[in-house]
Design a protein that fits this description.
alpha/beta
Length: 72
């Protein structure tokens, strides 16, 4: 499965995440096994986080930006 995910991600410019998924990624990927090729891909890819509560995603994972939206 890792090879399939890696192939799909290698064709993307960025990943769009919701707040909860971003929190899970931010807790895992920055300290994941550096020998795993997916780790470099996940940490090196641009991420956009859509959230009504997150003001800033920088500093939690590399190359992350928060896109905030007012609550509906």
């Amino acid at each position: 499965m890792g090879a399939v995910v890696g192939e799909q991600m290698s064709n993307n410019d960025a990943t769009l995440l919701g707040r909860q998924t971003y929190d899970e990624f931010a807790a895992y990927w920055p300290s994941a096994d550096p020998e795993d090729p997916i780790t470099e891909m996940m940490n090196g890819s641009r991420k956009y986080v859509v959230s009504t509560t997150l003001a800033d995603a920088t500093g939690r994972t590399p190359r992350s930006s928060a896109v905030t939206s007012p609550p509906s």
